[in-house]
Amino acid sequence: MKKILLPFFVSVLSMLNSCSTATDINYETTENLPQSYDVYIAGRENSKACYWKNNIKTDLTGGENLMPLEIREENNNVYVTASLGVTPNSFKSVHYFWKNGNKTEIKQYLGIPSGAQNDITAFGVHNGDLYFAGYVENLSPANPNQRYELCYWKNGVKTMLYQSPFIPSAEGLFINGSDVYVSALIVDNNQNVDRGYFKNTTFNSLGQPDYVFNFAKNNNGLHILFQKNAKYYSKNITSNTETQIGNYSINLPFYGKIASDAGSNDLYTTYYNQGNNYFKNSNVVSAGFSPLPYIQDLFVLNNNVYMIKYSAANNVYLGKVFINGVETQSINGTQNGTVNYTSTFNSMYVVEN
Q1: What is the pLDDT of residues 170-197, one digit of tens each?
Q2: Which of 49, 115, 228, 335 could form a disulfide with 66 if both were Cys (CB 3.0 to 4.6 A apart)?
């Protein structure tokens, strides 16, 4: 699942300083964008979950006080996941999803028993099949070492990845042909922590990184983003090669995202306190076309760069959507309670007609 940074982290993020400068290349633009793309934005307006397709809003049934996490489109089907969004610890958790506006509770869909601890944190869709990944508590384990189960579900059918007396976690999920990849943190019976990825049910360690994130695929192979020694790296799983991304350094566990322009060799990486630049491969690219300080999400298709940028100062949220640096959509919201804003842009997805 794409790990979305919500505005309640802004007060912390504003204290961080970047170690990179956007001097390598200028922000790329594409003239005369063809009118053959549908741009989907998931967010909320007036404290209700919704999404926009080409600026036209659809309210999601039963979306009051829910926080959208991800949006996907496949074969004219629109999928949106959402969390309760009430604490910083719950902003990743999938509590509900909609398919074409029909709402489903995730615990019911996955058959999670009432009272069982769980945290479903990764989502994917492939050829109409729905995938989720996370952990669930076994209320009646055969032995205490099997209390927590790291799993993925395909159309509600569970596949066990790992069992432990300590809580594991799933971070990203990617379906590559017939193979299912899940990036994860696991803890063995002796409380030793490791991070890496499962290919189907086989775990592959990344050599003790500090954090693991999501996957992206381009012409060169399948890549995973991770952080170690306060720097970010991508690993090409296909060729088993590792690349440091830029010269960026951060000591706090804020989330990164790697994205691909699927028909090219290019990879794009964002770090969520880096609003004024991002990386294309290992080159820093300026996003200074807007003074908004933070990048919420980024999507690239056919060399066109789609981006959500935002600010959240003085209890007011301002979010804007840009295509190749040109503003196409905006929203304003005020703070509602301690962590939520009444109106936000959270996730984007783009498809070619």
Answers
A1: 999 999 999 999 999 999 999 999 999 9
A2: 49
